[in-house]
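Take a protein:
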Amino acid sequence: MYQMKILGRRSCRWLCRETMKKKIVKYATFGRLFSISLSAVALSGCLFSREIPEERYVRADLFVDQGAEELRQMHFEEAKRFFELAADLAPLAAAKDGLGCVELLRGDVDKAVSLFEEAYQMDKTYDEAMLNLALAYEVRGDSERARGIYLEYLNKYPESAPARNNLAALEYERGGGRIEVLHALTKAAMLAPNRVLSQNIVVLRRSEEN
Protein backbone atom coordinates (compact mmCIF):
# COMPACT_ATOMS: atom_id res chain seq x y z
CA MET A 1 0.00 0.00 0.00
CA TYR A 2 1.50 3.29 -1.09
CA GLN A 3 0.66 6.81 -0.02
CA MET A 4 2.09 10.30 -0.14
CA LYS A 5 1.98 13.28 2.21
CA ILE A 6 3.46 16.74 1.79
CA LEU A 7 5.52 18.00 4.72
CA GLY A 8 6.93 21.21 3.31
CA ARG A 9 8.34 22.95 0.23
CA ARG A 10 11.70 23.88 -1.30
CA SER A 11 13.76 21.14 0.28
CA CYS A 12 14.25 17.61 -1.02
CA ARG A 13 11.33 15.28 -1.57
CA TRP A 14 11.14 12.24 0.67
CA LEU A 15 8.95 9.39 -0.48
CA CYS A 16 8.43 6.40 1.74
CA ARG A 17 7.18 2.84 1.62
CA GLU A 18 5.20 1.14 4.36
CA THR A 19 6.03 -2.57 4.35
CA MET A 20 3.07 -4.92 4.34
CA LYS A 21 4.02 -6.88 7.48
CA LYS A 22 6.29 -4.90 9.75
CA LYS A 23 4.87 -1.45 9.02
CA ILE A 24 8.34 0.09 8.76
CA VAL A 25 8.33 3.24 6.64
CA LYS A 26 11.09 3.93 4.13
CA TYR A 27 12.20 7.06 2.35
CA ALA A 28 13.47 8.04 -1.02
CA THR A 29 14.11 11.52 -2.33
CA PHE A 30 12.81 13.54 -5.24
CA GLY A 31 12.50 17.06 -6.55
CA ARG A 32 12.19 20.13 -4.36
CA LEU A 33 9.22 19.08 -2.24
CA PHE A 34 9.31 17.30 1.09
CA SER A 35 6.88 14.37 0.98
CA ILE A 36 6.07 10.77 1.92
CA SER A 37 5.12 7.80 -0.32
CA LEU A 38 6.65 4.72 -1.99
CA SER A 39 9.57 6.18 -3.66
CA ALA A 40 11.19 9.41 -5.32
CA VAL A 41 16.71 14.03 -5.51
CA ALA A 42 17.50 17.32 -4.56
CA LEU A 43 18.26 19.37 -7.66
CA SER A 44 21.61 20.78 -6.62
CA GLY A 45 21.99 23.57 -9.17
CA CYS A 46 21.80 22.34 -12.74
CA LEU A 47 24.71 23.06 -15.08
CA PHE A 48 23.59 25.13 -18.07
CA SER A 49 24.79 23.98 -21.49
CA ARG A 50 26.00 26.70 -23.84
CA GLU A 51 23.85 25.18 -26.60
CA ILE A 52 20.63 25.40 -24.57
CA PRO A 53 19.24 28.79 -23.48
CA GLU A 54 18.97 29.30 -19.75
CA GLU A 55 15.27 30.13 -20.15
CA ARG A 56 14.67 26.62 -21.45
CA TYR A 57 16.22 25.15 -18.29
CA VAL A 58 14.02 27.39 -16.17
CA ARG A 59 10.91 26.31 -18.04
CA ALA A 60 11.93 22.65 -17.84
CA ASP A 61 12.43 23.03 -14.11
CA LEU A 62 8.88 24.39 -13.79
CA PHE A 63 7.57 21.35 -15.65
CA VAL A 64 9.43 19.15 -13.15
CA ASP A 65 7.60 20.95 -10.34
CA GLN A 66 4.27 20.39 -12.09
CA GLY A 67 5.12 16.75 -12.60
CA ALA A 68 5.96 16.46 -8.92
CA GLU A 69 2.58 17.93 -8.02
CA GLU A 70 0.78 15.43 -10.26
CA LEU A 71 2.83 12.57 -8.83
CA ARG A 72 1.89 13.68 -5.35
CA GLN A 73 -1.75 13.27 -6.37
CA MET A 74 -0.93 9.84 -7.84
CA HIS A 75 -1.83 11.11 -11.35
CA PHE A 76 0.78 9.02 -13.08
CA GLU A 77 0.02 9.77 -16.72
CA GLU A 78 -0.12 13.53 -16.12
CA ALA A 79 3.11 13.40 -14.11
CA LYS A 80 4.82 11.38 -16.82
CA ARG A 81 3.86 13.94 -19.48
CA PHE A 82 5.32 16.82 -17.45
CA PHE A 83 8.56 14.95 -16.73
CA GLU A 84 8.92 13.90 -20.37
CA LEU A 85 8.34 17.47 -21.53
CA ALA A 86 10.97 18.72 -19.07
CA ALA A 87 13.42 16.12 -20.39
CA ASP A 88 12.67 17.20 -23.98
CA LEU A 89 13.53 20.82 -23.15
CA ALA A 90 16.72 20.28 -21.13
CA PRO A 91 18.91 17.45 -19.80
CA LEU A 92 17.69 17.65 -16.20
CA ALA A 93 18.46 14.72 -13.93
CA ALA A 94 15.34 15.64 -11.94
CA ALA A 95 13.17 14.90 -14.97
CA LYS A 96 14.64 11.43 -15.40
CA ASP A 97 14.33 10.81 -11.70
CA GLY A 98 10.70 11.86 -11.81
CA LEU A 99 10.05 9.38 -14.60
CA GLY A 100 11.73 6.72 -12.50
CA CYS A 101 9.41 7.52 -9.60
CA VAL A 102 6.39 7.21 -11.87
CA GLU A 103 7.52 3.78 -13.06
CA LEU A 104 8.35 2.58 -9.55
CA LEU A 105 4.96 3.63 -8.24
CA ARG A 106 3.32 1.90 -11.19
CA GLY A 107 5.23 -1.29 -10.49
CA ASP A 108 7.76 -1.36 -13.34
CA VAL A 109 10.80 -1.74 -11.10
CA ASP A 110 13.29 -2.62 -13.84
CA LYS A 111 12.41 0.50 -15.82
CA ALA A 112 12.62 2.59 -12.64
CA VAL A 113 16.10 1.25 -11.89
CA SER A 114 17.24 2.16 -15.42
CA LEU A 115 15.85 5.71 -15.11
CA PHE A 116 17.37 6.31 -11.67
CA GLU A 117 20.75 5.14 -12.97
CA GLU A 118 20.37 7.41 -15.99
CA ALA A 119 19.55 10.38 -13.73
CA TYR A 120 22.71 9.80 -11.71
CA GLN A 121 24.84 9.39 -14.83
CA MET A 122 23.50 12.70 -16.16
CA ASP A 123 24.65 14.52 -13.03
CA LYS A 124 27.16 12.80 -10.75
CA THR A 125 26.50 15.46 -8.08
CA TYR A 126 22.91 14.25 -7.95
CA ASP A 127 23.76 11.75 -5.21
CA GLU A 128 20.27 11.62 -3.75
CA ALA A 129 19.21 9.51 -6.77
CA MET A 130 21.18 6.73 -5.11
CA LEU A 131 18.48 6.48 -2.44
CA ASN A 132 15.83 5.96 -5.09
CA LEU A 133 17.98 3.34 -6.75
CA ALA A 134 18.56 1.54 -3.46
CA LEU A 135 14.85 1.46 -2.70
CA ALA A 136 14.11 0.16 -6.19
CA TYR A 137 16.59 -2.66 -5.64
CA GLU A 138 14.84 -3.44 -2.35
CA VAL A 139 11.49 -3.64 -4.11
CA ARG A 140 13.10 -5.94 -6.68
CA GLY A 141 14.36 -8.17 -3.87
CA ASP A 142 18.08 -7.38 -4.15
CA SER A 143 18.61 -6.36 -0.52
CA GLU A 144 22.38 -6.89 -0.65
CA ARG A 145 22.83 -4.42 -3.48
CA ALA A 146 20.47 -1.96 -1.80
CA ARG A 147 22.46 -2.21 1.42
CA GLY A 148 25.69 -1.46 -0.44
CA ILE A 149 24.20 1.69 -1.96
CA TYR A 150 22.92 2.91 1.42
CA LEU A 151 26.36 2.37 2.96
CA GLU A 152 28.05 4.16 0.05
CA TYR A 153 25.65 7.08 0.40
CA LEU A 154 26.16 7.32 4.17
CA ASN A 155 29.91 7.28 3.65
CA LYS A 156 29.46 10.53 1.68
CA TYR A 157 26.60 11.97 3.75
CA PRO A 158 26.64 10.60 7.31
CA GLU A 159 24.09 13.26 8.28
CA SER A 160 21.41 11.80 5.99
CA ALA A 161 18.41 10.78 8.10
CA PRO A 162 16.56 9.14 5.15
CA ALA A 163 19.53 6.89 4.35
CA ARG A 164 19.95 5.97 8.01
CA ASN A 165 16.24 5.19 8.26
CA ASN A 166 16.22 3.04 5.13
CA LEU A 167 19.33 1.13 6.13
CA ALA A 168 17.96 0.47 9.62
CA ALA A 169 14.65 -0.74 8.17
CA LEU A 170 16.48 -2.97 5.72
CA GLU A 171 18.58 -4.49 8.50
CA TYR A 172 15.42 -5.10 10.50
CA GLU A 173 13.82 -6.90 7.57
CA ARG A 174 16.97 -8.98 7.16
CA GLY A 175 16.68 -10.15 10.77
CA GLY A 176 18.83 -7.55 12.52
CA GLY A 177 18.53 -7.03 16.26
CA ARG A 178 15.73 -4.71 17.33
CA ILE A 179 17.91 -2.84 19.83
CA GLU A 180 20.55 -2.02 17.21
CA VAL A 181 17.90 -0.96 14.70
CA LEU A 182 16.15 1.15 17.33
CA HIS A 183 19.43 2.93 18.13
CA ALA A 184 20.00 3.61 14.41
CA LEU A 185 16.50 5.05 13.99
CA THR A 186 16.86 7.18 17.12
CA LYS A 187 20.08 8.70 15.78
CA ALA A 188 18.34 9.39 12.46
CA ALA A 189 15.53 11.15 14.34
CA MET A 190 18.11 13.28 16.16
CA LEU A 191 19.38 14.45 12.76
CA ALA A 192 15.95 15.21 11.30
CA PRO A 193 12.96 14.77 13.64
CA ASN A 194 9.76 13.94 11.75
CA ARG A 195 6.58 11.90 12.05
CA VAL A 196 7.79 8.99 9.92
CA LEU A 197 10.86 8.29 12.02
CA SER A 198 8.83 8.68 15.20
CA GLN A 199 6.33 6.16 13.86
CA ASN A 200 9.10 3.66 13.07
CA ILE A 201 10.53 4.00 16.58
CA VAL A 202 7.10 3.41 18.12
CA VAL A 203 6.59 0.31 15.94
CA LEU A 204 9.90 -1.17 17.08
CA ARG A 205 9.29 -0.38 20.74
CA ARG A 206 5.90 -2.05 20.59
CA SER A 207 7.43 -5.10 18.94
CA GLU A 208 9.86 -5.36 21.87
CA GLU A 209 6.97 -5.41 24.33
CA ASN A 210 5.21 -8.27 22.52
